[in-house]
């Protein structure tokens, strides 16, 4: 590294890394004393361009941005990938430094779930829509419990979530509303690769061949939405989309058309607004995506 580049690196502002609730609340208090607003970006790390877009959205909304990095064991089932979930701390901190994030909230498991922890949230409504919850019945209870803790710990004015996890966005929004948590939940449209694949930390699990086949998920969504807008019958069009995905090598968990706000089943696009939602496995990797009709 040349002296000039070393100096530039040293001058780059580093986010304050906070690992305990006391220092976190002290940081928030100092920000509030200045009359500044706060936006939280909850993540499990392994940051990609989709996460960074959430950070930019948070920066547009608030004076100060704090990103949480916590791989939450409560939302992984016994046969899921908690142990192998990608963890890229150094790269994450570098990326957040470049975006001038103010702080990183990085608690350990013992901080979030200390000995004797016994309270969990059991969400209803969109959490029981028979979509992700049908295949991962533990998932939204784990999500709501950890997100509620994050919102109570940070007390942000805003929290940003991606629409890629659409059911999760609806579940978290309902939880904040129902529990009178004053944070405004802000959604961001899905960030995609050039070939349409929704950005996800789990894309790293795909083999070269699987990665080449993966965009079929988005193509099926766009084709289905186009046909529905043109008046094609709902059930037959959904069936054709599912077959299209299976022909690309996926094992489909669901391909559904739901009411975009309630996630209730619909009989016709006239019951809308309509959201298409899909989950499917390509090899050992389970991917989800969605699209507005």
What does this structure look like?
The chain is an alpha/beta fold and 293 residues long. It folds into 2 domains: 3-188, HUPs (Rossmann fold, 3-Layer(aba) Sandwich), CATH 3.40.50; 201-292, Pantoate-beta-alanine ligase, C-terminal domain (Pantoate--beta-alanine Ligase, Chain: A,domain 2). The protein contains 11 helices and 9 strands. It has helices at 3-11, 21-33, 49-61, 89-98, 109-112, 132-135, 139-154, 166-178, 208-213, 216-229, 234-247; strands spanning 16-18, 38-43, 64-69, 103-105, 158-162, 184-188, 251-259, 274-282, 285-292. The strands form 2 sheets. Strands 1-4-3-2-5-6 form a 6-stranded parallel sheet, sandwiched between helices. A 3-stranded antiparallel sheet has the order 7-8-9, covered by helices on one side. Helix 4 links the parallel strand 3 and strand 4. Helix 7 packs across helix 8 and helix 10 runs antiparallel to helix 11 (234-247). The radius of gyration is 20 Å and the shape is globular.
The shape is globular
β-strand amount? 15-25%
Strand order of the largest sheet: 1-4-3-2-5-6
Q: How many discrete structural domains? A: 2
- Assign the CATH architecture of the largest domain: 3-Layer(aba) Sandwich
**How many β strands by DSSP?**
9
Q: What is the overall number of helices? A: 11
- The helix fraction, in percent, is 25-40%
Distance between the termini: 51 Å
CATH superfamily of the largest domain: HUPs
Q: What is the average per-residue confidence, as pLDDT, rounded to a whole number?
A: 93
